[in-house]
Amino acid sequence: MGHGKKPILNPTVSVVPNVISTNGQQYNRQNPKTLISFSIKQHLEEQQREKAMSIIAGSYERFIWGFKLKPTKHDPDTHTLTLSPLFSYPSHLSSITTVACSGPAAASGGSDDTIHLYDLPSASSLGSLLDHNHAASITALSFYTPSSLSFPRNLISAAADGSVAIFDTDPFVLLKSFRPHKKAVNDLSIHPSGKLALAVYRDECFAMLNLVRGKRSFCCRLGHEASLVKFDPSGERFFMVVNSKVGVHQSEDAKLLLELDNGSRKRILCASPGDSGTLFTAGEDRAITAWDTNSGKLAYAIQDAHPARIKGVVTLSRNDSEGASEDPYLVASASSDGILRVWDMRMAAKENAKPLAETNTKSRLTCLAGSALKSMRRPQIGNQKAQQLEEGANSA
């Protein structure tokens, strides 16, 4: 970075001292109490548990739903995975519009203009973020997690008033809030480097955001409204969804490489990039489709995956190489009728593919996110002394 201005994506930078309110208390840099924290005993117990993944869903009825997925007997021919409830309660004052999670942290945004935080290991609420400067519905949330870490370093939020906020997660403090565009943000995606993000807007605009400096780098009008934008895991390409079609673009110059189109006029409502150039999409056609973005061809699909339109799809992967190779096709989906299902996409070739796990929330689900619970490598985020205590406990 040289000797210039310090970057925003730096856990040591403090811009707003008081931004968190939990149980009536505010936390600041003078009293840097981390909200996502785990006791030594809890951390050691978690290490002894079986590998598990978490799934978070939001609903129109203001409810946040949390589930733990345990792949105890991974057999594609039997219904052996278990979705165990973590929590379920009305965390917002109005409908939940977006959710995100990474490692032990989860967040939800709603049409009540608020952002709420959750601790997945303890299945508890951490309160809401204040001073994010959003004056409209929260439309997008995304955690930035470096590849070398198993817990998030930053949280990025966007709203219907065009504003974007960058938070540090160690602890949760506002680093920068800016308004790169005046219209509503439809979706936002962070590059794997954490240095930039792409945003698509309701007025058919597309923008590149510099997260290091907290400002807009580029903006243009597409001529059509894109509802979703996603980087692939490598960051070399990104995907833009317009109605029923997906454009595959080169990240370096935004050049359109190819277009994915299954011939249906039904809108794509959700998308999730996978490994090896795979992209999963779902929406009004009630099917989960896997695309080979290298060739532009449809790889496979699960037709009638849900009885209603699918509002969320997420590729479930653990943050370690062993888990990633073990479950490369594990995908979760949520539909507007409240059903949440987990699939092994290797079953897509079967005529009557059955989900590995299923639960019915009996609510109108709006969004979905997934994370690996096994990825907690340190007991307290923002407290290095806890790590030293843990090492002492292990050697005792």
Automatic annotation (TrEMBL):
PANTHER family: BNAA02G13180D PROTEIN (PTHR44675:SF2), PAK1 INTERACTING PROTEIN 1 (PTHR44675). Residues 377-396 are annotated as: Disordered. SMART domains: WD40 (SM00320). This is Anaphase-promoting complex subunit 4 WD40 domain-containing protein. WD repeats lie at residues 325-353. Keywords: WD repeat. InterPro entries: PAK1-Kinase_Regulator (IPR051959), WD40/YVTN_repeat-like_dom_sf (IPR015943), WD40_repeat_dom_sf (IPR036322), WD40_rpt (IPR001680).
